[in-house]
From TrEMBL:
Pfam family, one: MlaE
Family, similarity comment: Belongs to the MlaE permease family.
GO cellular component: ATP-binding cassette (ABC) transporter complex
Protein name: ABC transporter permease
Species this protein is from: Candidatus Desantisbacteria bacterium CG_4_10_14_0_8_um_filter_48_22
């Protein structure tokens, strides 16, 4: 029993230490974001990695999500004679919930793991110590470009996912469920409100912050060799996904109250 309590205590202390470190890195990143720098090229390269390089996987996933949502919705509401409302239901579901959550989780896996592994490798090979020797702030040089890239590009990816998801829903609704194309588009436009788009883009920006800060923090915390890099990568992905799901719940409650 004593060992169980001691183990729980150690786990709780480790959690609090990581939580404190994440918040410290976040505030440090905010500070260095507004300091003069010459990192435009680095920021642009990270934006290409987060955004352009993710288009294919986001596009395929969004297309399938839109098709599945339309199919399941059509089957469920056809018995009530409301099949023509598929477009509106798919649009609201994708804009408010599915697109931002899918983009957040996909980027946490793809982008977060890369950030943690890359920075962790630099930590192991003492490249970060070399930056400090050259009077270069590691947070400004390594974290800020990744932070800004995720903050800017993940909402862009959500917009892209919305369009592709609606196209997937349109394919199923018009080809398989017999819904007229004009009716589908009309319900998409009439059901979708500005609040739905705003909610999705806000979620995406916050998920970008979570992914970048969690993954960069764990990369900077690497202490050992290659084994610790693998643990850092796992930590970055798992806890980023968990934090995104928790944030998604609170956002859903908040926006439903608005």
């Amino acid at each position: 029993m004593k060992e169980i309590v001691e183990n729980l205590g150690r786990q709780a202390l480790a959690f609090l230490r990581h939580l404190g470190g994440i918040f410290l890195l976040f505030f440090s990143t905010i500070y260095w974001t507004f300091q003069p720098s010459r990192l435009k090229k680095n920021i642009f390269s990270q934006m290409v990695f987060v955004g352009m390089d993710s288009l294919l996987i986001i596009g395929v996933t969004s297309l399938l999500i839109g098709m599945v949502t339309a199919w399941q919705t059509g089957i469920a509401i056809e018995q009530f004679g409301a099949k023509t409302y598929i477009g509106g239901i798919v649009a609201v579901a994708i804009a408010r919930e599915m697109a931002p959550l899918m983009v957040g989780l996909m980027c946490a896996g793809r982008v977060g793991s890369s950030f943690a592994a890359e920075i962790g490798s630099m930590k192991v090979t003492e490249q970060i110590d070399a930056l400090k020797t050259l009077a270069v702030e590691p947070v400004q040089y390594l974290v800020v470009p990744r932070f800004l890239a995720c903050l800017v590009m993940m909402p862009v990816l959500v917009i892209f996912a919305n369009v592709i998801g609606l196209f997937g829903g349109w394919l199923v609704a018009t080809r398989n469920l017999g819904v007229d194309s004009a009716i589908y588009i009309n319900h998409v436009l009439s059901f979708t409100k500005f609040k739905d788009l705003y909610a999705g883009l806000t979620k995406a920006a916050v998920y970008g912050i979570i992914t970048s800060i969690f993954s960069c923090y764990r990369g900077l915390e690497v202490r050992g060799g290659s084994e610790d890099i693998s643990r850092a990568t796992t930590f970055a992905v798992v806890f980023s996904c968990l934090a995104i799901l928790v944030a998604d719940y609170f956002f859903s409650v908040l926006f439903n109250l608005m």
